[in-house]
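Incident review: delayed structure delivery

Summary: a single-chain prediction request sat in the queue longer than the usual turnaround. Root cause was a stuck worker, restarted by the on-call engineer. No data loss occurred. The affected request and its eventual output are reproduced below so the record is complete for anyone auditing the incident later.

Affected input:
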Amino acid sequence: MKDLIKLVDDLPWIVKIILALPGLDIVWAIYRIIKGYVKKDGVLLIIGVIWVLLGLAITWIFDLVTTILYKHPKLT
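Output delivered after worker restart:
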């Protein structure tokens, strides 16, 4: 699983932006869940679950804006 986290972290900036678009934002939600599990971080795990539930409606905007500004989504 650590390899998957490294793979996503090393993606090009434009690919990260594409993955933050509506419908594809589920990738960031799953990434947060996996990273929370690997780091044993319950808060990140809960945030990942919330992202899955609200991702199509609201959270993709947050991921898109933070990816554009900071080159990766925040809360990861």
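Verification: The first helix runs from residue 2 to 9.
Action items: add queue-age alerting; document worker restart procedure.
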